[in-house]
Amino acid sequence: KACSYPGEPAHGRLVLPASFTLGSTVNFTCSSGYRLIGQSEIECVVRNGILRWSKEIPTCQAIPCLPPPDIENGQHSGGDKEHFEYGDSVTYRCHGPRRGQRPFSLVGEASIFCTTRDNLNGVWSSPAPECKVVSCQQPRVEHGRLLSGHRPRYSFGDTVAFECDFRYSLSGSGASTCRDSDLWEPPLPLCQRSDCDDPPDVRNAVKARLAGNLFPVGTVVTYECQQGHQFSVGEATWNISCLQGFVWSETPPPCERVPCPAPHIPNGRAVQAWQLKEGYGYGDRLQVACSEGFALQGRGSSVTLRCGSDGEWQPAVPECTPEPRCPKPAIPAGTEVDESSSDYPVGARLRLQCREGFVLRGPSSITCGADLSWEPALPFCDRVCGPPPRIPLGQHSGRGGTEFPYGATVTYSCAEGLSLIGDESLHCTSEDGQNLTWSGPAPEC
């Protein structure tokens, strides 16, 4: 024997037992949004000899809510209803503004619905919104600017977006909305320093291998001096780093030119006086030559030195060595026409002459050659007789001649009608084996 099936309440259900025998119980639950009215549990009992349930089955009643609150300057969509139950919703809206007034903004949730927290009593999902005039001040972010949402004035719901200035980064939300009078949500962000400024420029140096134009804390920048320059002796690089306060650790000094020592050239001099200075640096030029009587070894008459990037002169500072000279030409009875010296530099050109009583045999000018010999071969001075003596009223065959070699003969003759007294001919001869003279006195006419 068993109790009959008790049935299920509307909007509820029966938790079925294993059987409906005497003493068994059944339980009832309601669907979401409904509450149980009556006993949630009944038992199969005997009454008057009949198996029956101890109570009537309960009912499931929709959970009610109080009417939604009214608001100033607005209304909700449920104004024509008296009863509200689980799941019902209403939507609020604001009244239009009077002439000259700013419009109302609905602050809060526009729609609310009837719900429950304890499955017995109904509550509205949110407080009723408010209708009020909402304005927010111009949003200002130090070291930042508006990216969008520019307006002369801001009302409820207006949204703005920000970006930070160069070398600053955003802390917080990049967008905020006007939610209440002077209330921006999320709060306006901060623009916080994120990088050091550009590293300082350094004279005569370059910043090596920069990876971009952002310099966060810890960034190291290396400076390299330009060719021929240095920070200090032997130091051509300098490192600086971006510190926590977004400042550079230091400003490097300028790169100065690599110095060269003043060239010391014994028996040498600067060709241009204006090139002389107390100190020389990379790139300076100095034209040098040797003093008179000295020459540059293996070079021309002068050489231009340049101070190199290694602090050395290029080419190397030369030496002035005594100039190679040709000895005075040894020509017996001969001498130089213009000047006389004990020796002569390479390239010197001399004109030669013989003293009276001698005649030059060979070239009349010679040049000191690179091999320190005279070119062409030296001439010699040959002995001669001078012009033969002249006679009154007569003449000789050597008329016009000034030099007569050994053995030369001249013949005299007289004017017409005169007779020659003495030897008709004289010849150039030597009485002592060295000097030449005419063989005798001249005849007479």
Structure summarized in a few sentences:
Residues 1-62, 63-133, 134-193, 194-257, 258-322, 324-383, 384-445 form the Sushi domain. 0% of the residues lie in helices and 41% in strands. It has no helices and 47 strands.
Descriptive notes:
The strands form 17 sheets. A 4-stranded antiparallel sheet has the order 1-2-4-5, with no helix packed on it. Strands 8-10-12-13 form a 4-stranded antiparallel sheet, with no helix packed on it. With 445 residues, the chain is mainly β. The protein has no helices and 47 strands. It is rod-shaped, with a radius of gyration of 66 Å. It starts with 11 loop residues before the first strand and ends in a 7-residue tail after the last strand. The model has no long low-confidence stretch (mean pLDDT 91). The protein folds into 7 domains: 12-62, Complement Module, domain 1, CATH 2.10.70; 64-132, Complement Module, domain 1; 144-193, Ribbon (Complement Module, domain 1), CATH 2.10.70.10; 205-256, Complement Module, domain 1; 259-322, Complement Module, domain 1, CATH 2.10.70; 334-383, Ribbon (Complement Module, domain 1), CATH 2.10.70.10; 394-438.
